[in-house]
Amino acid sequence: MDNHDEPPRRSGDSRSNNSILYIVVAIVVAFFIAIYFIRPSRDTITPAQLVDLIDAHEPDASGKPVGSLAIENSKGKKILYSNLRNATVSKSMVSAVVDREDLDADNKDIASSKEKGAPIVTYLPGDEQSLNEITDALKAHGFKDYSGDPGDGFLEIYGGLLFMTALIVILFYLMMRRLGGAGSAIAFGRSRGKMHMQDDLNISFEDVAGIEEAVEEVKEIVDFLRSPDKYQELGGRIPKGVLLVGPPGTGKTLLAKAIAGEAGVTFFSLSGSDFVEMFVGVGAARVRDMFQQAAAKNPCIIFIDELDALGKTRGSGMVGGHDEREQTLNALLVEMDGFDSNSGIIIIAATNRPEMLDPALLRPGRFDRQVLVDRPDAAGRADILKVHVKSVKLDESVDVKKVASITAGFAGADLANLVNEAALLAARKGKPAVSMEEFDEGVERVTAGLEKKQRVMHEEEKNRVAYHESGHALVAYCLPNTDPVHKVSIIPRGLAALGYTMQRPTEDRFLMTQGELESRIQVLLAGTVAEEMVYDEISTGASNDLERATELARGMVTDYGMSRLGRVNYRQSGRSAFIPEAPDERMRSHSEETTREIDLEVKRILDEMLQKTRSLLSDRRDSLIALAERLIEVESVDGEELRRVIEEHSHGPRIVPGTDSPKRSRPAGEADKPEEGDAPSAEGAS
């Protein structure tokens, strides 16, 4: 692979390293100054003065040398030395211990100026004559315990101080390392990106399944990183940045790793939130540090996950244009396509909220290309399942295509979780392999939640939930434009659901007609209508059904133009196309009178759908009661048994009340047949 020339480093690139170097130099200088000024206090005398001091000593009766000598030092002060002892002779110096007394001190201070055991020293730099004279004088006056030191006496003088200096330096080094760790003040400006070398990236495009269109879009980048000359000869320029957009769990991060693994270049990975801190300027410093590290590994890939945490539209914050996030975004914009070009550095980012990104990020020269990583279709789900079941022992009854057909709307992460749930269920049951039964149960666990068989329900509540779910299932079965009912259960699941009705679509759907929306509203309202017919009153279990039905009706009026108010959109929504459940940022653009008309129209739609649902259930009351009794008896009814119970207790032609079209024909057993399409829905009491 041909490497690009490394761009010139800016003068501020090594600012952090220079600062640390300056600190170390200052510390060394300070310690040398300390050594000079706080070295041990020793009186220095000449060799001749030392000889005179030795000659002044005569041994007493016990053989101990005694005597004194007054010597004037370099400052003109007279000092009386006496009782010389512990003389040590070496080639470069002679040290001894004496009693010291200041003769110039006042009488009242004589006692305080006396010092016993004061050290003195005489330096002999290569003066062998003086050394011999001192040695002869010591021998002549009875000094027998002096010993020659083969060293130069430096450690003897400065050993203790050097030990303390080394100890302080070590403590300072450890403190600097501690301060330089993650989360410290010194490390604030450092990038938190993790560098992955080629040996760490064992992921290729073969490990990415179900998003073939996205893979084809990014293969061009890999080809450029492998052979850039082919494009440069024709004057082509590789996209500076690639933005991967799509719902959560569809494999955006995996695709970025596969690009780095296929291209054979260094891969830096980090999140958009890694740049933002409470201190202003830290995020911008981290961005610059990240690109400096990338320039040293050119060519390379920088992957920023959750870019919307960093790249939100400027001016939308409460603080103004000088907050930390906007400064960080400005630094990223400059690094991506500023005055200094960073050739050979490709930025790949992932987000599921592209509508929130600043337009300056999306212009050509920065994120030139946007790649959609959407939820897979049936064939894509089958390919993803094949990747995940490689390490799972499967029973012969498992058909991957059939599992893919009953998991419509599942993303790659959902399918991986489904395979894991099925394996755990099989292990819990003690089975040697994972069968189709575990996959069916795993789908229910993922979509509706965990079963709560230990929850004891009151008999009246259990009967009410049975009629509620029977209403959902009966209306869903009878109405056109509805997904087939796969299973009805009154076993509590999830956080608050006391029962659920699972519908599975027959095909992948991307559009919905007005009739389909109205049918969905009727299915949602059927539970509370069934309770009203049997118990003459409703319960709180339909709160979620009413919320969803009202939202569908409001969408028909404000978003889709499916009402008497005309083909007008009354809601400017900032809702993400990939996260429908995320709260949207609405901005009203109509009057109060129009708002009242919208509310009245929503209520009219709900009232009409409620009346149609009530009429349908009244005509099929026998089927409703029979289905509820069957639910109370067995707690769960599948699609085939549901069809049989309803057909046995139905009378007259199957014409949906309130419409002129007959009920679409459905072969026997179709409700129990696995289908593909949108995500399986679970309607039920909550």
From TrEMBL:
EC number, as in UniProt: 3.4.24.-
Function: Acts as a processive, ATP-dependent zinc metallopeptidase for both cytoplasmic and membrane proteins. Plays a role in the quality control of integral membrane proteins.
Biased composition, class Basic and acidic residues, residue ranges: 661-676
Phosphoprotein as UniProt keyword: no
Requisite cofactors: Zn(2+)
PANTHER family named among the record's database cross-references: ATP-DEPENDENT ZINC METALLOPROTEASE YME1L1, METALLOPROTEASE M41 FTSH
Source organism of this protein record: Blastopirellula retiformator
Protein name: ATP-dependent zinc metalloprotease FtsH
GO molecular function: ATP binding; ATP hydrolysis activity; ATP-dependent peptidase activity; metalloendopeptidase activity; zinc ion binding
Main enzyme class: hydrolase
Amino acids binding ATP: 246-253
GO cellular component: plasma membrane
Major place of residence: membrane
Spans annotated as Disordered: 644-686
Family under the similarity heading: In the central section; belongs to the AAA ATPase family. In the C-terminal section; belongs to the peptidase M41 family.
Binding site for Zn(2+): 468, 472, 545
Active site: 469
Compartments, record wording: Cell membrane; Membrane
InterPro entries per record: AAA+_ATPase, AAA_lid_3, ATPase_AAA_core, ATPase_AAA_CS, FtsH, P-loop_NTPase, Peptidase_M41, Peptidase_M41-like
UniProt keyword terms in alphabetical order: ATP-binding, Cell membrane, Hydrolase, Membrane, Metal-binding, Metalloprotease, Nucleotide-binding, Protease, Transmembrane, Transmembrane helix, Zinc
Membrane topology field: Multi-pass membrane protein
GO biological process, one term: proteolysis
Oligomer status and interactors: Homohexamer.
TM region positions: 20-38, 157-176
Cofactor binding comment, as recorded: Binds 1 zinc ion per subunit.
Domain of life: Bacteria
All residue ranges annotated as the AAA+ ATPase domain in the record: 238-377
